[in-house]
What does this fold into?
Amino acid sequence: MSRVAWMALWLAACAGPPAAAPDPGAWLDGKADGATDFDPDFVMSDEFYTDPSYASLEEIQAFLEATPWHRRCWLADYVIDGRPASEAIVAASFEHGLNPLMLLGRVQVESSLVSAATLPPGRDGEFAFGCHKVTAEHPNGLDPSVASFAAQLDCGTRTLRTLYDKVLDGSSVVRPGHSFRTDDDTTVVPANEATAALYSYTPNACPGNCLVWMAARKFDQHLRNVVRPSLEPGPPPS
It folds into this structure.
């Protein structure tokens, strides 16, 4: 099975029952424009990566209540330090100048927690952003002090912003216009700062950043085609 086919199955595995209406994310299983469009040199635009106002608080909450998998995500009802998870995510987006929808895509790629309706008992969204902390007691990076969703949101957003800023100031090893070899043996020449930052976070073309690209597209299509229309005011009463 090809890498692209495997990735399509990986994301589609979380899918719920098919909806009666056309699925705006149907391209994931090859029914529309297909994952073969992935360009490893351009994962997403800088504008998409860095726009904290790309999706409003209302839109992020509505997205979590009705995900592309036709079910409610557990984050729709999750509270972080006394406020809804959607509010915490949007606040972190503005604090660090990042797109909140991009952050949700990152969570899905790292931990599949956006497609999850519930969490196993006793869990708190462990390592949602794949953000680890290596210590003497936890050389594998799975330090429980950074395991919770709140800690991961803080660590993940700070890391994604720091990596982008390092690309901007020229201190990043991965830079636009310069070739490097990924850990899956792919030669990549990042076309922009966002792509370079994403490879700094995950130095892998496929499945790594191909999944990031796929999740971003799926989530953006769902936001545009389902979430935003659902929030538009209905016709006035007759």
Notes: The two ends are 56 Å apart (CA to CA). The chain has one domain: 3-16+26-230. Residues 56 and 184 are 36 Å apart (CA to CA).
